[in-house]
Amino acid sequence: MRPDDFERARPHLTAMGEVAGGELDALAAVADRNPPVLRSHDETGRRVDEVVRHPASQPMERIAFERFGWRRCRIARACSAGPAGCPTS
């Protein structure tokens, strides 16, 4: 990363690091103990193919998507640069 890009990103990276080491770490520990489960059929036997995730996953996504501007993106490499690098942002 070029030095001027790093300086521009520094406050964002610092904030992300603080959240990652605290709030996000606690949520991730709970989510890791309760991995997603595939629910293939509902109570009536109808095929639903649904992934059921622990409630801790929702605040983790909210932190990433709302607080830090990340978006769900199929182009992982471009999105690894954050919102500025993601063509779908």
Description:
By secondary structure, this protein is of the alpha+beta class. The protein has one domain. It contains four helices and two strands; from the N terminus they run H-H-E-E-H-H. The protein has helices spanning 3-20, 23-33, 57-67, 76-79; strands at residues 37-41, 47-52. A two-stranded antiparallel ribbon has the order 1-2. The longest helix is centred in the first third of the chain and has 18 residues, at 3-20. The two termini are 21 Å apart. The mean pLDDT is 81.
What key phrases describe this protein's structure?
2 strands; two-stranded antiparallel sheet; 12% strand; alpha+beta; 89 residues; 4 helices
| Element-level helix/strand string | HHEEHH
Relative strand content: 5-15%
What is the number of helices? 4
What gyration radius follows from the Cα positions, in whole Å?
17 Å
- On the 0-100 scale, what is the average pLDDT? 81
Strand order of the largest sheet: 1-2
Number of strands: 2
**Quaternary structure type:** single chain
List the helices and strands and how they pair.
Blueprint lengths: L2 H18 L2 H11 L3 E5 L5 E6 L4 H11 L8 H4 L10
Antiparallel strand pairs: 1-2
Helix pairs in contact: 2-3
Short description:
With 89 residues, this protein is α+β, with helices and mostly antiparallel strands.
